[in-house]
Amino acid sequence: MNKRLSKTVLVLTIGLIATTCIYLGISNKSSQKIVDIKGNRQALEGMNIVYQEDEGIYKTKSVKISKDNLEIDNYAKEVPYDIPSTKENIKDRDLLKNVNYQAPTYQDDKSKGYVQLNEYYDDYSSVVQHQYMAYVTDKNLQTNKITSYEIPIKASIKGENGTDYSSVAIKYQGELYLAVIIDIQPNYFSKEEEQISASKECLINVYKLNLENESSEPIFNQKMSDKEKLASRGNITFSHKDKVYMTMNRYNELENKEYEIKYDLVEYDLKTNKINITEIPTSIKNQSSLGDYCIDGNKVSFISYDYDKKESKDIYKLTMDLDTKKILSNDKYTVKNEKSSFRSNVEKVKVDNNKIYLITQVFSEDDKINRSQASPKYVHVIDEKTKETLYTGKVYEEINPGVDVNIVEEEI
Predict the structure, then answer these.
(1) pTM score above 0.85
(2) Closest by alpha carbon to 196, among 145, 261, 125?
(3) Residue 213 in 3-state DSSP?
(4) Coil, helix or strand for 39?
(5) Which of 116, 123, 180, 230 could form a disulfide with 135 if both were Cys (CB 3.0 to 4.6 A apart)?
């Protein structure tokens, strides 16, 4: 009787496993689509288009689109949103598990990590005080030990309105530094549907962070605007060699509530404890900030674009030598959008081997009404010299179209 029962249980178990496998095989069929719209996907060469999608607590799907293939891993190791799923980031996913897209990362030969800067308010005083706290997550590269720190930032700013800020971290001579650009009590201009934040008090502060005693020391402070000028922080920050870089927007008020925006690259040198400001010439007006950037050696390329309702989008790429601040090129390229689009964004950019790789997202009129983020994303490969679009592909994920799509180099 026991043997017969055991056989029955065994058969039922095997049947359940087989049924589960068949179900998972069906449910794991890719809903992902890559549609080649123009040109040949071979134009991707050594670049891959990668993204991940969270399909539940225990399931993360990873997709890699290359020039020759489309690979799907239905049970991939998850990395945070806006972090490319490269081999190095997958290895460091325990370090990066709480990072968001705004948290600046740092690395030297001894450690790597990121700094999350948060603002909080002191409501107990007669005047609202804006305070800041740096949450540092650091990984020792010798022991692989990960340690978290909470470091108060010595910046007390008064005012009932909020502040806008961004930051960049860097390791210099074994010490950790954090540069912060802050808009105090920003005002807002409105042109059509776009809101522009500007401030008459735009500050740049640099701090040395002591991890051992969880303290900060201000080492640099400069006001970047005065009572007659409007300015705001840009959305680009990065570090290179012994310097940190931040973009800043300057506003010139014109007639009829119009305004002209000029862009600056602010360079802070840790060796000299000084800043250098270089204008970034662009052809775009009435835009809140530069779109994106890409670093290649000592060169940085800035991408800007217009928001006009067009079937085609003009993309402007300005390349600057970071050592000499010389403008190496300033070119315009055009990519085609769908006829039904009312707006499109440039989400990612990479410049390599005389090619420009772009990820764009196109929004339809329905998205404008429903505030949807479920619009398809496009891959564009452009020849830098001829300005010809070599390839355009449409990436669409039915389950979760709002996935973060990245451009990464082929890994061995």
Answers:
(1) no
(2) 261
(3) coil
(4) strand
(5) 116
Place of tokens 């991940």: 52
- For 221, phi then psi, to 5°, come to -150, 130
Following DSSP, what letter does each residue of 327-396 receive, concatenated? EEEEEEEEEE--TTEEEEEEEEEEEETTEEEEEEEEEEHHHHHHT-----EEEEEEETTT--EEEEEEEE
Q: What b/e readout covers 90-118, taking b as 16+ CB neighbours within 10 angstroms? A: bebeebbeebeeebbbbeeeebbbbbbbe
Residue 304, class by beta-carbon neighbours within 10 Å (0-12 exposed, 13-18 middle, 19+ buried)? Answer: buried
Residues 6+ apart with CB under 8 A from 185: 159, 161, 163, 199, 200, 201
> Which residues, at least 6 apart from 293, have a Cβ–Cβ distance to it below 8 Å?
236, 238, 300, 301, 302, 303, 349
- Please say whether the beta carbons of 221 and 204 come within 8 A: yes
**pLDDT (tens digit, 0 to 9) for every residue of the chain, 412 residues total?**
555 556 555 555 565 555 544 444 434 444 546 889 999 999 999 899 988 877 766 678 888 899 988 888 888 888 877 778 788 888 888 888 877 666 788 999 999 999 998 887 765 554 556 678 999 999 999 999 999 999 998 776 665 566 778 899 999 999 999 999 888 765 554 444 444 555 557 789 999 999 999 999 999 998 877 656 777 888 899 999 999 999 988 877 666 666 677 889 999 999 999 999 999 987 555 554 577 899 988 999 998 887 665 667 788 899 999 999 999 999 999 888 666 566 777 888 999 989 999 998 877 666 554 545 557 788 999 999 999 999 999 887 655 556 788 888 887 6
